Amino acid sequence: MPRITAVNHVAVVVDDMEKSLAFWRDALGIQLQELRDVPAEKSRVAFLPIAGAEVELVMPTTDDSGIAKYLAKRGPGMHHICLEVDHLVSMLAQLKAKNIRLINDEPRTSADGKIYAFIHPESTGGVLVELYQLA
Amino acid sequence: MPRITAVNHVAVVVDDMEKSLAFWRDALGIQLQELRDVPAEKSRVAFLPIAGAEVELVMPTTDDSGIAKYLAKRGPGMHHICLEVDHLVSMLAQLKAKNIRLINDEPRTSADGKIYAFIHPESTGGVLVELYQLA
To answer: Less packed terminus of chain B by CB within 10 Å, N or C?
Structure first.
């Protein structure tokens, strides 16, 4: 049986990176590990680790990405939660068997080598859930 | 300097507890630690621990609470993120000094003895942030 092993990150969509960093980094005092352009996702991402988890601030850099459309429609705020799983392929099979709607039916691989898939909010009670398999 | 030490939980507002548990517990396989009525918050809460963090599913049990109004307005989905802090009073002072708007200017104590305060989403980029000081 595949197992959820950790909360990896909570992603927050932001419309003003400097203003968001003024809160998360400067006011709360969480260390900014990296601020990186992610062209594949048409966004700029700030990584703020907290113990084993992370807050990720995601700012769209174009108007045509999924996250840009989300921002235009819903405004800034929490976007998704990412959970770590020990075996993603088995987990996706288990979810499909329980009629959970997936955004990615098969695992995808990010530019930095992470294996991931998203679950559709329709099946989760309105929460966009990402699953990561690390290493 | 006060320090953020962990992600304690992500709270999800739900309109149908059984349907939500069918996803988080039955499909993802996360163990349900407890399903508890919290009269002080006019809600029923499911606690699903994941390593050191937790997903909390919160279902309003009346129509007049803050979370019931949130659900009516925005629909089910992520509601807030709770971060642990080593010294809440110092953190609230630091936030006030940086003109961050707080929902609770002073720490509050929950029925089970946790010391907490909420930060207003206006100052965080649309994210409701709770701070916990444990023990």
So the answer is: C
Chain A closest-CA separation from residue B49 CA (Å): 9
| Torsion angle, alpha carbons of B89, B91, B92, B97, to 10 | 130
CATH code of A82's domain? 3.10.180.10
Distance from CA of A1 to the nearest CA of B (A): 9
Q: pLDDT by residue (tens digit) across A7-63? A: 999 999 999 999 999 999 999 999 999 999 999 889 999 999 999 999 999 999 999
Q: What is the pLDDT of residues B55-82, one digit of tens each?
A: 999 999 999 999 999 999 999 999 999 9
DSSP annotation of B86 reads S
- The count of domains in chain A is 1
Q: Is A52 on the interface with B (CB under 8 A)?
A: yes
- Ranges of beta strands (E only) in B14-128 are 34-38, 43-50, 53-60, 77-85, 108-109, 115-119
Please, what sign has the CA dihedral across residues B28, A11, A102, A86? negative
Note which residues in 101-120 of chain A have CB less than 8 A from chain B. Answer: none
Distance CA B56, CA B34 (A): 10
Can you tell me the ipTM of this complex?
0.95
Q: Which domain holds residue B116?
A: 4-133
Residue in the block written with tokens 């976007």 = A79
User: pTM for the complete prediction?
Assistant: 0.96
Nearest CB among B15, B95, B121 relative to A27 is that of B95
